Amino acid sequence: MNLHAGARSLDRVRARVLRPLFALRPLRRIYFERAERLGFQHALFAACALLFALNFPLWQLLLGPAVFGYAHLLSSVRHVPAAVARGTRRPRISTRALALLLGACAGHILYRFIQAAGWLQQGPANQSEWQGLGTLDVLFVASLCLGFAPLARRRASQWIGALLLLPLLIAMLSAPLETAGLLILLHNLIAYAYWLAFAPTGKARLHALVALATILIVGGLVLVGALDGLLPEAHGSEFLTSIGLNLQDLGLSILPASSDPMLWTRLVVAFAFGQSCHYFVWLKAIPESRQSKRVPRTVRSCLRTLELEFTRDGAHVLVYALGASFLLWLFLAVPEVRRFYFLFAGFHGLLELAGLPHLLACSAPRRATASQVQ
Predict the structure, then answer these.
(1) CA-closest candidate to residue 211, choices 47, 21, 28
(2) Within the chain, where are the H helices?
(3) Burial code of 133-149, b = ≥16 C-beta within 10 A, e = fewer?
(4) Is the pLDDT of residue 291 over 80?
(5) Pick from 182, 80, 61: nearest CA to 133
(6) Cα–chain-centroid distance for residue 233?
(7) Could you tell me which residues come within 8 angstroms of residue 302 by beta carbon, excluding any fewer than 6 positions away?
(8) Residue pair 34/291 in contact by the 8 Å Cβ criterion
(9) Rounded to whole angstroms, how far apart are CA atoms 114 and 133?
(10) SS3 per-residue string spanning 149-178
(11) Pick from 66, 158, 210: which is nearest to 359 by CA?
């Protein structure tokens, strides 16, 4: 299959859909203003995500990783190092640095699968696929954080940023279950820090801050019970129960000390809502904020960018692998595919954490340049 021919076909379909929308002046103005477009799209996406989370949170947690999961993992590998290196004379990550990062992530993935296979000492019986934060995970975060140091533009402030991460690393060792539950919720918010880091203008940062405030307010309302009247009595189904997806297990994975079914429901709804929004940030807001052009890129342009970063063959392998990963959810047993995904995706949240100190330690980013187009 010729990927470029397929990309051109998708671009033609996209153009036909957009052409009648441009007849509406407000939509045309939003389309050509990146900050307003991303703010509007985030608001629309968040509204849909909240509606779905209030009514079908378990289905949302099942379908979200199936549709967006592996693509957003690739996005984090591409953009976290670039966020650390932003504003430097060489904002584009070298092939060697990218290879080292991919190697570190592959090592963490391999460890997770070896642990799941029973070749290493297992954790507590109630430990879910989200958990397992231990010594190797701490070393993974710490080594990546130090490995990012040569990419960052302010060496002296890196150690200050690293100290901000130290208490969390200690908590990961001393209270892994509770820390894992906290990170499950906070993980969805960290993506917004990277969106803010790449926002090229003050107006763009304002829209990103409004988006973050929206997530915090809505999530807070869900957690304090302000939206309990909108929650249906039952969220599950026989199918979801058969694959082991239920409110109790998910609620305990977020807050192991709780025994309140209503609190479990609130936590799961808040998590489902935040997870969907964080997919939008990684797959839409961050890539578009990095590019120099204000309008969204074509599908073919995105493919060419992947070819520049991973070589032509490497990019095509990634595209085919993303397609195959989606087919896995369609044709294989859901519990096994879901567990495979979370074992594979364990590095993602840790990668975000490793880059976060460098974001906090650096000043505001400069306006995007042509060299920052990814």
Answers:
(1) 47
(2) 3-21, 25-32, 34-55, 57-64, 70-85, 95-116, 135-147, 155-174, 176-198, 202-223, 238-242, 247-254, 261-280, 286-290, 299-310, 312-331, 334-344, 346-361
(3) bbeebbebbbebbebbe
(4) yes
(5) 182
(6) 30
(7) 7, 287
(8) no
(9) 15
(10) HHHCCCHHHHHHHHHHHHHHHHHHHHCHHH
(11) 158
Take residue 46 and report the two structure tokens written for it.
């968040």
Distances (CA, A) of 348 to 205, 298, 370: 24, 27, 28
Query: 183: which 2 tokens?
Result: 């990170």
Tokens of 158: 């890196």
pLDDT at 124: 47
Average pLDDT of every residue of the chain: 81
Q: Hey, how many other C-beta atoms are within 10 angstroms of the C-beta on 364?
A: 10
Contact 133, 176 (CB under 8 A): yes
**CA separation for the pair 174, 87 (Å, rounded):** 37
Buried b / exposed e along 327-357 (16+ C-beta atoms within 10 A): ebbeeeebeebbebbbbbbbbbbbbbbbbbb
3-state DSSP call for residue 237?
coil
Three-class secondary structure assignment of 72-141? HHHHHHHHHHHHHHCCCCCCCCCHHHHHHHHHHHHHHHHHHHHHHCCCCCCCCCCCCCCCCCCHHHHHHH
pLDDT the model gives residue 323 = 85
Tokens of 139: 């070393």
Query: Is the model's pLDDT at 47 over the cut of 90?
Result: yes
Q: Is 65 helix (H, G, I), strand (E, B) or coil?
A: helix
Residues 6+ apart with CB under 8 A from 199: 35, 205, 207, 208, 289, 365
pLDDT tier for residue 76 given thresholds of 50, 70 and 90: very high
Collapsing DSSP to helix, strand or coil, 340 comes out as helix
